[in-house]
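Document type: protein sequence-to-structure record

Subject area: structural biology

Format: plain text, a pair of labelled lines:
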Amino acid sequence: MPIDEIDRKIIQATQAGLPLVSEPYQAVAEQLGLSAQVIMLHLAEMQQTGTIRRIAAVPNHYKLGYRYNGMTVWDVEDSHVDELGQKVAMLSFVSHCYQRPRHLPDWPYNLFAMVHGKTEQDAERQTAIIAELLGEQARSHEVLYSTKILKKTGLRIGG
């Protein structure tokens, strides 16, 4: 979808993140000489057209003290992956959960769930809770711990 000049200005003003103030849309509006309502309408339209996918907080888990960030990967029956994934996703400590294709014979896992712990024991407890929830439906699993912080950025356009 083509973007108009206001969309471009909004993207440029927010691509490094929204201001950390009580009224971020108002702050962006003042910066651009627009109203907060215009900013919110344009953002909503850009989401509807797919220009932007979402507006969300992207926490730095390490700065928050969570040093054990593990992607748990599970081998569950494909016919049950949606139902089981919904249950896992409802756990308060799972930040994201999704299905991915298997790559047999080397990669049998099709259900992924991210856990975050301040200690390795925290992450292990969370993984054990998922294992208990999945029960015999989980044929095998692994935990892949993060070793470095990846740069997380959204849409970027030049000035």
